[in-house]
Design goal:
Chain A has no helices and eleven strands. With about 110 residues, chain A is an all-beta fold. Chain B has about 110 residues and is mostly beta strands. Classes of the chains: A mainly beta (about 110), B mainly beta (about 110). The interface between A and B is medium-sized, with 23 and 24 residues.
């Protein structure tokens, strides 16, 4: 079956760096996404990795290792507004395409 | 429209009633998804419409759930004989291409079954 695992909750301090890990066991891998979801709001796109390596976008970076089925999202210079859920999602190509999500990691940023 | 539009934003219904949830995707987007999100949980895949191909219905939890997409645009998710466990936020998302890509989400329809 298709499986995506990520920690349920994390806490970090304002100004610090936090790394949120995601491991996946899927067939037909077609790329990995990270989305941010604030409470009561819709998810919004953060990053996309299809090749191994690090993608950097401002304070956010995402890493992918396809051979290990592993990704992480790195958030630098944490701000209070970064308190949200971070969803790891995998695009699958199994004849057709679809995107499935992990359960999400709820990040709490404290002062 | 400018973004994905869903209606109603909130729906309260009685157990056993049928409900219809509507999604209007971004114009020109060929892929459309429905997900379900229970309180504090991740997104559960329900169904995926991929252009003119047959939809992937593998995530629909029971035969009480059905969805259609008319004219490659608006989609309706129908839940028949609603149960309390159907209470959740139903999120619709669209994507420009059917070959995978960034998803743009609507604000969701919050369904409460009493």
């Amino acid at each position: 079956g298709q499986n995506i695992d990520q920690p349920t909750e994390m806490t970090a301090t304002e100004g610090a760096i936090v790394q949120i890990n995601c491991t996946y066991q899927t067939s037909g891998f077609n790329g990995l996404f990270w989305y941010q979801q604030h409470a009561g709001e819709a998810p919004t796109f953060l990053s996309y990795n299809v090749l191994d390596g690090l993608e950097e976008k401002g304070r956010f970076s995402s890493f992918l290792s396809r051979s290990k089925g592993y990704s992480y999202l790195l958030l630098k210079e944490l701000q209070m507004k970064d308190s949200a859920s971070y969803l790891c999602a995998v695009s699958l190509n199994t004849g057709g395409f679809k995107t499935i999500f992990g359960a999400g990691t709820r990040l709490f940023v404290k002062a | 429209g400018a973004g994905v539009s869903q209606s109603p934003s909130n729906k309260v219904t009685e157990k056993g009633k049928d409900v219809e949830l509507r999604c209007d995707p971004i114009s020109g987007h060929t892929a459309l998804y429905w997900y379900r999100q229970s309180l504090g949980q991740g997104l559960e895949f329900l169904i995926y419409f991929q252009g003119n191909s047959a939809p992937d219905k593998s995530g629909l939890p029971s035969d009480r759930f059905s969805a259609e997409r008319t004219g490659g645009s608006v989609s309706t998710l129908t839940i028949q004989r609603t149960q309390q466990e159907d209470s959740a936020v139903y999120l619709c998302a669209s994507s420009l291409n059917i070959g995978g890509g960034e998803l743009f989400f609507g604000e969701g329809s919050r369904l409460t079954v009493l």
